[in-house]
């Protein structure tokens, strides 16, 4: 009812014999869709899998992916057997908003390919995110000390570990 994600079950039994990541086929196939809209999804490990020593590498399932969804996972405590039908990961559905946000790029930069059933690669175009320097992230700040106060606009710095007012 209120769950954000959908559990993914393994399609085969896997024995992890070392700490190398392995691709584990699931019982789910793309494309993912909700009524008439195709969806992408974020693939994350389930908490219960982590408690068993299974580390799921997060991934993104594209809206146009048509193959069998696979889970990339590893363990730090081999050997480890994952039985067929084990629910070790989950999909968090995502609407494909990037198609509406991105302007078309020249053909030599953005040579669109269809994802099809080829996973673990990139078919997306190049993206360049910029910040208009005339629209900097500023906030109106009021500093108060006793009965004195001053109000001013300050530039926001999300990476700072110290604040200096002058």
Automatic annotation (TrEMBL):
Coiled coil: none annotated. Pfam families: dUTPase. The gene is Ervk9_0. GO terms for molecular function: aspartic-type endopeptidase activity. Transmembrane segments: none annotated. The keyword Protease applies. Keywords: Aspartyl protease, Hydrolase, Protease. This is POK9 protein. PROSITE patterns: ASP_PROT_RETROV, ASP_PROTEASE. Residues 152-166 form the Peptidase A2 domain. GO terms for biological process: proteolysis.
